[in-house]
Amino acid sequence: MEEEICRLQKTLEERNGQLEASASNTAKKIWDEFGEPDVERDQTIMEIE
């Protein structure tokens, strides 16, 4: 049972790393395409809505 938990934990950590890398690459592609986000502008727009 403990071996199975260790194996599952390792798999989870590996997948988490893959997801983090994918999210980072996606964010970079969006920033390259549209520019980095303007947090102040976005907050102002949200307040207006």
Distance between the termini: 53 Å
How would you describe the oligomerization state of the chains in this entry? Answer: single chain
Sheet of most strands: none
SSE string? HH
Q: How many helical stretches?
A: 2
Strand content: under 5%
Query: How many β-strand stretches?
Result: 0
Question: What does this molecule look like?
Answer:
- The chain has 49 residues and is mainly alpha-helical.
- It has helices at residues 2-34, 39-48.
- The mean pLDDT is 87.
Please specify the SSE layout and strand pairing:
Layout (H helix, E strand, L loop, with lengths): L1 H33 L4 H10 L1
Short characterization:
The mean pLDDT is 87. This protein has 49 residues and is mostly helical. It has helices at residues 2-34, 39-48.
What structural keywords apply?
49 residues; mainly alpha; 0% strand; 2 helices; 88% helix
